[in-house]
Amino acid sequence: MTPSAAPRLPRRPPLPLTSLAILLLVALPAWRLSRWPRPKAQGLEQLMAVSSLLQSFPATPERRLPVLWRERLGEQLGARLWRLQRRSWWQLWGPHADGAPYLAIPQPSVSLGSLVQGLPAARQLIEQRGLRVGNLLVLAPDPLARRLLRDQLLPRQRPARGLRRQCVERLQAGQAVFWTPTALGALLGPIAPLFQRYQEGCLSLSLAPENRLLWQGQTSAVDGLQAAPPAWNPPRGSLPDLEEGLLLELRGSALQPLLQGLVSRELIRAPLSERYGLDHQRLERLERAPFRLRLRPMQQGRFLAGMELQLSLEGRPDDWQPVLRRISDTLAAQEFKSGGGANA
Q: Alpha carbon 277 to chain centroid distance?
């Protein structure tokens, strides 16, 4: 018998081949990052973290120079950069939603220094109000606002996730808006608690034929939601036109999203029960009711519009008549007009 042959180990590749493999492993990812760099959204993510309200606008160099560009960049430099734009630009307000807005534009495709040659006023303006944030140039309304924004920016920031990740994509893709609870409170004032479900979010806006404004997006009741929101499935087919004379029509399978911010407060629930008879059980049925809300312009009187709310309520009509009578009497005492009845 002959002894079995020992297993042979593969030969080590020659040193030049090993070096080439290592070089490829390092060079290929670097080459890919150079072609598709992540900093494309880095500046926008940094601004979202310190903004109460942020709006994006598509590039429209064929249109007139906006007032914000003229105020932040001056007439000459603003016009030059406006004609060169090929990507979206943004306006934003600071974390306290007060003061004048900032202007954010992509880093110019040509050297900014060459653009300000012969424009000493523009060069001085950029030095005093301009701030580089990632791949963006941000123009503040004044030097103090520039310093405040610089101090609020985080040098190292975790990438946006969940709802904010989707908001970054919307703000890059076209016309959109991102808001936080601070901005919502500043815009809505005392009625902001009614919109508890919409404390933070973003919407994409588009103009449809016949000057119809379409919007879609995500919202959250939690500031900085990390989980990805559910996907939105747009309705199939074309949207029906509003009836003539309507300003707004809103339909839903349940009234709960509109009432949650209202009836979740004991300060509101107690008077509803005492004055109108809307106890806990009736409120629950009211929240489950399918609805249609309409706004119509008013041609006469002190009010510009009238609201019409139609509900499909659970239970017998007799169960809701006392509530409707109390509401009708209260509205009449305040010189409002009411009408309608209960549908089982």
A: 38
